[in-house]
Amino acid sequence: MVVPSAAPMLMTRNLLYTGITRAKKLLIIVGIEKVVEFMIQNTNIKKRNTGLAYKMRERRKLKF
After folding, report:
1. Which domain holds residue 21?
2. The pLDDT of residue 10 is above 90
3. What's the rounded Cα separation, in Å, for the pair 11 and 43?
């Protein structure tokens, strides 16, 4: 898993956790140790505005 320096809002514990849990047999983290430590400490969770709920409602309105 490559862990580059990026905007702090992208370097979250959730992202690191996802990468770690998707590894099947082996995980090698490539990056600066301080960046990984920052990600572990960064528990900020931002609301994701995906529009999924709106899309699902609109999809229901369509008749096939």
Report:
1. 2-61
2. no
3. 10
